UniProtKB/TrEMBL annotation:
Protein name (Swiss-Prot/TrEMBL): inositol-polyphosphate 5-phosphatase
UniProt-listed PANTHER family: INOSITOL-POLYPHOSPHATE 5-PHOSPHATASE (PTHR12997:SF9), TYPE I INOSITOL-1,4,5-TRISPHOSPHATE 5-PHOSPHATASE (PTHR12997)
GO molecular function term, any single one: inositol-polyphosphate 5-phosphatase activity
Statement: the UniProt record of this protein carries the keyword Transmembrane helix: yes
Domain annotation Inositol polyphosphate-related phosphatase: ranges: 30-397
Annotated organism of origin: Cyprinus carpio (Common carp)
Length: 398
């Protein structure tokens, strides 16, 4: 957080939370005490503790000078065809006069005033748009549909999880930009994830992300620079990583008694009394030398972080200087330790179009003018560490 303290005059801060944890509002208010922002954007993808977090932030002394607020929370869980559990909060400082928000119904920008809070299904709200991914994007839906056809059963019992995107569009000092909250598919099984390179899960995420980019770039609205943020669920190339971590180990595959299906893979050191080096099951990834994911912010493992490479033609990212953001222990006494449920990865990201990167104001004399980092590195923030990006923005004068 020392990098933040050296940046007293930033314009925009983007913060992404998987969900709100007990220390989130404390950490955010701590940043607000040591720097100045005029536009704060907070994004979430689960609704736990939302009301507590929002009331804590809105009523705090640090937010007293933010006189305009826009909040969108998709909380209508009974609307199974559209529920995403996504949320976006925007706080605008009184010093920022020239800002407008887009109305997708009338296709024009409008001035922002007052406190506007939309919580529920968000149906009819015209200052944002959201979409849940089509069912056929779900990793198991095709197999499920085939089974339904074979068994002649109805397809109404498929568990359709809440994945999708939410977009708002802004005009700040005559510079337009899209801000998009994205939640992509996770790896359901560690065993399946390390079967191939890239994994089948990676292919599903690639399809969904390309869909989002195409949707926000389509000609029905004039394309603008855009930022994408959220739990992309990007994972390391698990097969390649495991092969590297276990080069000198002996492999044992344990199969279920009634089938040929592998239920666990155990890698044992050839010496050192055959100590278990790595143990993988559907929801277990226990590596003996876990510190490798934290040393030098996991820099040596970035070569296995490949999922954004398919999109280099349209998106980019600030350089990563923080450890994998997931899955951290939820034990308050172990804030820097990872759980043994998944292979640690940079799931939580803030990406941008090349045109969005061009509107970031970079000063050669101020190497800390743009900061991309995690929040609460040394305190428990839940299994996902919140990720933030703040930067001065170029503006257009007419």
């Amino acid at each position: 957080m020392s990098r933040v303290q050296k940046c007293p005059n930033n314009v925009i801060v983007l913060l992404y939370f998987q969900y709100f944890w007990g220390n989130d509002s404390y950490e955010l208010k701590r940043i607000l005490k040591i720097t100045v922002f005029v536009f704060i954007l907070i994004y979430m993808q689960e609704l736990y503790c939302f009301y507590h977090f929002y009331s804590s932030i809105e009523s705090s002394s640090e937010m007293a000078d933010f006189d305009r607020v826009c909040v969108y929370v998709d909380s209508h869980f009974k609307a199974v065809d559209s529920f995403t559990a996504l949320g976006s909060m925007y706080f605008i400082h009184k010093s920022l006069k020239n800002i407008q928000q887009y109305d997708f119904n009338v296709n024009e920008f409008k001035a922002v005033s007052g406190h506007n809070k939309y919580v529920g299904s968000l149906e009819g709200v015209t200052s944002m748009e959201k979409e849940k991914f089509p069912k056929n994007f779900w990793p198991d839906y095709i197999a499920y549909s085939i089974c339904c056809i074979i068994l002649e059963t109805q397809r109404n019992t498929f568990k359709w999880s809440r994945k999708g995107y939410m977009r708002t569009r802004w005009l700040i000092h005559n510079q337009g930009l899209d801000l998009v909250n994205v939640h992509l598919f996770h790896d359901a099984s560690n065993l399946i994830a390390c079967n191939s390179s890239p994994s089948v899960y990676s292919a599903n995420r690639k399809k969904a992300l390309r869909y989002v980019i195409n949707r926000i770039s389509e000609s029905s609205y004039s394309p603008l620079p855009f930022f994408l943020f959220g739990d992309f669920n990007f994972r390391l190339d698990t097969l390649s990583l495991v092969q590297n971590l276990s080069m000198s180990a002996e492999i044992q595959k344990v199969k279920k008694d009634s089938s040929n299906e592998v239920e666990k893979i155990i890698y044992e050191e050839k010496d050192n009394d055959h100590k278990v080096l790595l143990h993988i099951e559907t929801k277990l990834f226990a590596y003996l030398h876990q510190a490798v994911f934290r040393e030098n912010n996991g820099k040596e493992l970035l070569k296995y972080d490949k999922e954004t490479s398919a999109f280099h033609d349209v998106i980019t990212e600030e350089e990563i200087h923080f450890p994998p953001s997931y899955p951290y222990s939820e034990d308050y006494t172990k804030p820097t330790q990872y759980m043994n449920t998944r292979c640690p990865a940079w799931c939580d990201r803030i990406l941008m179009s090349h045109s969005a990167r061009d509107i970031i104001h970079r000063r050669e004399e101020d190497e800390n003018g743009v900061v991309y980092d995690t929040l609460g590195s040394n305190i428990c923030m839940g299994d996902h560490k919140p990720v933030f990006l703040f930067f001065p923005m170029k503006t257009i004068t007419h």
